[in-house]
Amino acid sequence: MRPGTDVPLSAYGRGAALFTGVYDNTDVFFKLGQAVLGGVK
Asked: What is the pTM of this model?
């Protein structure tokens, strides 16, 4: 996968609202951090 490729994301459970839609694949790491750390940007 090339950097900057859009990927569809979905989730359920705590923090699932952060993972709805299509995001740049390089943003997934930061979204995981937000979910784990409780909203740190």
From this structure: 0.55
